[in-house]
Amino acid sequence: xxxxxxxxxxxxxxxxxxxxxxxxxxxxxxxxxxxxxxxxxxxxxxxxxxxxxxxxxxxxxxxxxxxxxxxxxxxxxxxxxxxxxxxxxxxxxxxxxxxxxxxxxxxxxxxxxxxxxxxxxxxxxxxxxx
Length: 130
What we know:
single chain
């Protein structure tokens, strides 16, 4: 049991370090779209690629992306959105696949988001994640 706890701690600290070490200059630009809303603009993107593993039936890493409240709450690794600053949001880092080891969705588990979709998520976060 002690080995499992140590291993989980190492995995969590590795994820935290990798999120801090990503090259945000490789992020797709935020969309120029205005007045983005979770239900209208973001949820359809998440439903296509994320909710299968981060929804009401399954919550990998205790993260749900099927409601605004759950998305803003984050998961077992804490907040995944930095309101007003998408470049600091780990959700953006993972969906933009900046770190191959933390890329979401993982290879073979769903279609990666397009640069345009990542740009829409970025713009939504930059606009306050409403």
